[in-house]
Write a structure and sequence with these properties.
homotrimer; about 350 residues; alpha+beta; 13-stranded antiparallel beta sheet; globular
């Protein structure tokens, strides 16, 4: 009889976390041209700044920077095996910011501090609140985020009495100065859209016309590319034994699809400055067609002549067009079954 | 109540085009190593010149040039949102040429002139004829093509009386000098095929033995990679409400699959010099297995010692082997249901 | 009537091989950043040495070397059209080694010598034994392997009386000196695992916890990326006429999936030094979920302070967890239907 090894990392349970604990996540990743091409192939992203070195020079960059969400996924994916391998649910994001641009050839890594721990009343699980910071190879911050997940307890009998919940800002505090070069001269025929900061109004709603169907290979390729190894996305055999009955799409891929769909109407909003909050209202599965609409929540001016900010709420839908959905909520205040994402974020857009 | 925005680009309708109109397409694209690898993964292409820098040097290049069809898709994809987002059908191609090679690191873009407009007698649609030219970052022409598409009218009542139809050459005029370096010394063991220009005969038919099945993820990944956003390829929810009932494969991906399949028998035909005409005879859907056969239509000599030209007709089939299909046509002259592509093109091949 | 060409390469049959025959395989391949990203997306590989240039420097490399299996597939794939296009079965591997590391930008090619030919008693087929060596653009050996395949005869009537069977070493002879730089200083938080050579025991069994479901697009993309054109992997129309009834997954992709799954428990085993033997016990199809367990067969010390060797047997399973499978064999000594791979290989691991 073989001796069964205890060298398998089973992931952390609620009891394994401690307040102020610091975690260095494994798998620093050198970002390549391949990652960028795959991101376009997997999402259909068309934001022009990230497609062309020549256009990036017009924008004031030396070469095309990485799409903020691609960088997010590649960096964030590393935290799964330490934070959320045994997660029951990703409960929320807050104060997500992108302090410095990332380029092909950069190597990104992630570190996390546990900032809150709250035992749930059922005794079976607890919420873990973390603050994660991503760095490039020069040690510069490239990602800063807080999130909280519900994690199983190893031993439901033990009562730990932990009840430390951090407070979060409703919107990510904006930096004093945007880390975006001065835009030199951009031909709006090349970005694909004529509308700029001054054209948008608070309360305006954009019903994006594109719908994109996602298949199993698409979302699993994306999630494997990010080296995110959460089992629910990959293991159909295991999922067949759960009420979901199939592989669940990585929520980050839903965010990327929705951002891609929002291109038509927001073509000049090339930068995500902050994600203020986000909810994965319902799960997404292979075969679902993703649609989206966006509402302009707030216009934030900057001292700059070239760039202004828009706070946007983009709602992701499945298998229904935006025209058919006036509000994401049912009358009882719960999300409608067709809503897969409710994202509150701030973009920079050409003036 | 939110104010519904009018900032969404709904695409151009027949009335939106005017004769001699010039369109600068958005999304210049820097071509990367990732695009090249994805093209191989998505098509299985095995033409050796595009696989190896070392072999490309034997061919007289500094490094491996891009596969002509990959360049075509990446450049052409940009025109969809302006020309064919509301297209009913892609009616044809003519005079397609590849004036200069493209390399990894180059940035390509596309401009179009409207060269013809013909209102259809039913009043509901019209044909738009365009001449598109692709450029690299140095302003050199890298693609030159004409095509025509049938586009919906916004208002079927309005009669515009447009009836301007350009004439096209039956075959693309050949350049005086091929833009292909002098071949240094190529080991035909490395290209995978022993046959050269002198070995082929007019009338010879090659029944290619490979068949490749295409799945939804394959063709949608390819089409998203090209940033071609034609809705029929991506939106299963929408297509379910049409007679097709599912996503339609991008015709360009069919051309690439057929070209890949033609490798076995035409291994030394590394360059596409021209596409003379092409018809997507029937639609292709996920699950179809593509086969192909090629007929040598014409042998065209050149003053060069290293390279000759072959004009080839390659017929793409679905779910039937070439041995079973003597002619692509039914007795009434219509394409058989199994024919998905009828391509007339000119290749350069080693002598 | 068209003249049917005889220029199609139908692949080699048993009679086409001769003892000591040398074959230069076509399609040298320049390895790109795109290949590396696709490999991660297609397999979910997380071995840290291959993910990060920065970490590779800590390991003593100038930049991240290629994953040994990715190099194997890209190099090996070239032999299919000459050796195994008409293969009935891949019977085995032996003495596989990886003499030199390969990097992005290198160009790999493959040459083969026929080292054995054995006619089967049924007269319909024969076994072909080959020794293949892969080279980089400098002519350095990067892959060395022996394998044998069962190939159809063109003419079952002809008796050739060939019965030359080479002998193979049970385990690949180890090089006097490992071609691995001296490890400088690696933070095991970054490799994702704390366990090193000294921690493992002979007889220890690791039940890897991850299961990964493979879809048709995944395995066909991988196999096309490697320019491996074996028809059984791609042609669903043809396979529907066989007892298998669907496309068969490339065995090499199964090896890669199993290696990926073995990461959790063997995180510091970054290098495959040898594959001693391997059996594809049962076929794998789209929809199968791959699991794996590993047994430490042998601990081999080296004179080095930084690296030791482990000989490992990893068993790949489909649709069943390792906990449920004590032995890969039935009572009659045959492989259980759930076993898809039985791999005996030697890894280098941090001390």
């Amino acid at each position: 009889m073989a001796k069964i090894s205890n060298k398998i990392n089973q992931g952390n349970y609620f009891e394994d976390f401690s307040l102020n604990q610091k975690i260095v996540h494994p798998l620093p990743r050198t970002i390549s041209e391949g990652d960028v091409s795959l991101y376009i192939a997997l999402t259909g992203s068309r934001f022009a700044l990230h497609s062309s070195d020549e256009l990036a020079k017009d924008f004031g960059y030396e070469k095309r920077p990485l799409d903020d969400l691609l960088m997010f996924h590649l960096t964030f994916g590393k935290s799964v095996q330490d934070i959320s391998l045994n997660a029951i649910a990703n409960l929320g994001y807050a104060e997500v910011s992108f302090p410095n641009p990332v380029f092909i050839g950069d190597t990104v890594r992630l570190e996390t501090t546990v900032i809150g721990l709250k035992e749930n009343s059922n005794g079976k699980s607890g919420n873990v609140y973390v603050h994660s910071i991503g760095y490039n190879q020069k040690g510069q911050e490239i990602l800063n985020l807080k999130r909280w997940v519900m994690v199983h307890k190893k031993n439901p009998q033990t009562v730990l009495g932990l009840n430390s919940v951090p407070s979060f800002e409703k919107t990510t505090p904006l930096p004093k100065e945007l880390n975006i070069p001065t835009v030199k001269s951009v031909d709006k025929q090349l970005t694909g859209g004529e509308f700029v900061w001054g054209d948008y109004e608070v309360g305006e709603r954009l019903n994006h016309i594109e719908g994109i169907t996602v298949d199993d290979s698409d979302h699993t390729l994306a999630t494997k590319l990010y080296q995110n190894n959460a089992k629910v996305h990959f293991n159909d055999h295991m999922m067949k034994q759960t009420p979901m009955n199939e592989r669940l799409m990585y929520g980050g891929h839903v965010i990327s699809m929705v951002r891609t769909i929002s291109f038509n109407g927001l073509q000049n909003a090339q930068w995500i400055v902050a994600i203020n909050s986000g909810a994965h209202a319902n799960p997404t599965f292979a075969g679902d067609t993703i649609y989206a609409y966006s509402e302009i929540v707030e216009k934030i001016d900057t001292p700059r002549d070239d760039i202004g900010l828009l706070r946007i709420r983009t709602v992701g839908l499945k298998n229904i067009t935006p025209q058919e959905v006036e509000s994401p909520f049912e009358e009882d205040g719960k999300y409608k079954k067709c809503v897969v994402l409710d994202l509150d974020y701030t973009v920079a857009i050409l003036k």
